[in-house]
Amino acid sequence: MAVHPGGEGVICSLPKSCRWFEWEATKNESALTLSLKQSEKVLYELEHIGQQLAVTFSHDGSLLALGSEDGKLRAFKWPTMESLVDVPDAHTSVKNLDFSPDGKFLVSVGSGGPGRVWDIASSTLKASLPKENDEVFGFCRFSQNHVNEQVLYVTAMRDRGGSIVKWNTTTWKRISSKYIVRDPISAFGVSDDGKFLAIGTIQGDIFILNASSMKVHTAVKKAHLGLVTALAFSHDSRALASASLDSSARVTQIKEAKKNGLNVWIILFIILLAVALYYAKTEGLLL
Asked: Distance (Å, rounded) from C-alpha 81 to C-alpha 67?
């Protein structure tokens, strides 16, 4: 399932085809209720294409990409559905997709083999993202760093647990790999401003990380009773919404990290001690 960034509707992957659903708003005195209704618009290009395991829109909503269970990768202009990319054997099975913020590249990860980056304009393979040792890639997200340079994050599972791998989007070389959690990662998200990353685990735990330091900012153990299936940051990066297989949803507030006040008190103590010693010396209390 993928929600259009412009709020036009939602595209859902069904066992054999994809369907387009539109938002329907119902307003009463106390609340505004949103629901989905199947649109009269038929996506003929997505009829009888089999099960799609990954569906995503570009950041501006002008592109749509789909990855299938049989490994086929497709990308279209939206809403004209003009075909841009059609690769029958991109992976053994496509697991996750993401467009770069400028819409020039599409990254894909699948079961087995490396991750891959595709050039949308030329419909060709731009780069391969090799694995190391026993890594299994799970999710991929483009983002930006603290100096507004584009970066790529890919989650990886090894025998010791889940990690986040960072890639340079010019050379497409691996920058770093950070071990995060023992349990398998079941959901991954990146804030719009690139400051935070979030992972959800099969145990229902949520971790919010500072993207620059890769240190845990907020940890919520047993945020859900079942595995976490989806994560999304608010546009201002002050909250994280999460959903779970247990049919629950929650919002986690992201508070500013508390600064360590211990150093301030130490400095204040040293100043007071220096003043006291100086006074004692001037009064002849010290030999």
From this structure: 15
pLDDT in tens, 76-131: 999 999 999 999 999 999 999 999 999 999 999 998 889 999 999 999 999 999 99
Q: Which residues contact 164 (CB under 8 A, 6 or more apart)?
A: 153, 154, 155, 156, 177, 178, 180, 197, 199, 209, 214
CA distance 226 to 247: 8
For the chain, what is the total number of helices (H) and then of strands (E)? 1, 23
Pairing state between β 105-110 and 174-181: unpaired
Q: What is the DSSP string of 57-101?
A: E-TTSSEEEEEETTS-EEEEETTT--EEEEETTSSSSEEEEEE-T
Estimate the share of the chain in helix, then strand, then coil, as percent rounded to the nearest 5.
10, 50, 40
Tokens 């279209």 belong to 76
Model's pTM, two decimal places?
0.87
List the strands of the sheet with 124-129, edge to edge. 94-99, 105-110, 115-119, 124-129
| Distance (Å, whole) CA 201 – CA 187 | 7
Q: Is 34 exposed, middle or buried (0-12, 13-18, 19+ CB in 10 A)?
A: exposed
Q: Are strands 239-244 and 216-220 parallel, antiparallel or unpaired?
A: unpaired
Residues 85 and 106: beta-carbon distance below 8 Å: yes
Q: Where are the alpha helices (DSSP H) in the chain?
A: 262-282
Beta bridge pairs of residue 9: 22
Read off φ and ψ for residue 277, nearest 5 degrees. Answer: -65, -40
The whole-angstrom separation of Cα 188 and Cα 202 is 12
